């Protein structure tokens, strides 16, 4: 394989990316080849590794770079996780290593999903319990007003607690998404060797 073939193969491996990202990556690697000189093309190809490995690293680097450059959001975290999963799946890994990476992604995803569901259910339960106590208090106010006031007071307190912890819960879930992305990036870098040049 020569420089032209290598860059053509790299372009095809990066087809999921926006065109300007593909062009930037290809310009970077074309300059890398040019600096080494035509006589050292095979040495450069050997140093870089297969195009699929370089493409996988570019995908992972872009995911992390995008997270660092802009404020995090749930959509951005999902997008970054998807890019890193694509990077792991497109990396030239042995079958046992690939199976291990996929199993780790699935198990980590299941754990995170379970934690998020548990947190949402807890906060939802607090809000629902507070509102139920509040409404119950209004229903029994004509029968026994001291008990009704107790229910209304407890309902207001519990609902207030739920409203207070809701923003913190959202921030925690977003932070967990960011930690997942960074963890996946770390996993990717463990199961693939780092290429000599870093995509800018």
Automatic annotation (TrEMBL):
Q: What keywords would UniProt list here?
A: Membrane, Transmembrane, Transmembrane helix
Pfam families, alphabetized: HAAS
From the record, give the transmembrane residue ranges: 80-106, 113-141, 147-166
Carries keyword Transmembrane? Answer: yes
Q: Mind telling me what this protein is named? A: DUF1700 domain-containing protein
Q: Which organism is it from?
A: Lysinibacillus contaminans
């Amino acid at each position: 394989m020569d420089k032209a073939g290598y860059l053509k193969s790299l372009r095809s491996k990066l087809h999921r990316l926006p065109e300007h990202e593909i062009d930037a990556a290809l310009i970077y690697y074309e300059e890398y080849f040019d600096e080494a000189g035509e006589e050292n093309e095979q040495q450069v190809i050997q140093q870089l590794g297969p195009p699929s490995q370089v493409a996988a690293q570019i995908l992972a680097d872009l995911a992390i770079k995008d997270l660092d450059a802009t404020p995090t959001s749930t959509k951005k975290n999902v997008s970054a996780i998807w890019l890193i999963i694509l990077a792991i799946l497109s990396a030239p890994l042995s079958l046992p290593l690939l199976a291990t990476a996929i199993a780790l992604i699935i198990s980590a995803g299941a754990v995170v999903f379970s934690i998020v569901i548990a947190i949402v259910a807890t906060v939802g339960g607090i809000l629902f319990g507070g509102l139920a106590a509040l409404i119950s208090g209004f229903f029994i106010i004509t029968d026994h007003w001291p008990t009704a006031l107790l229910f209304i007071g407890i309902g207001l307190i519990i609902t207030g607690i739920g409203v207070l912890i809701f923003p913190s819960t959202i921030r925690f879930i977003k932070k967990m998404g960011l930690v997942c992305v960074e963890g996946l990036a770390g996993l990717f870098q463990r199961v693939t060797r780092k290429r000599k040049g870093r995509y800018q």
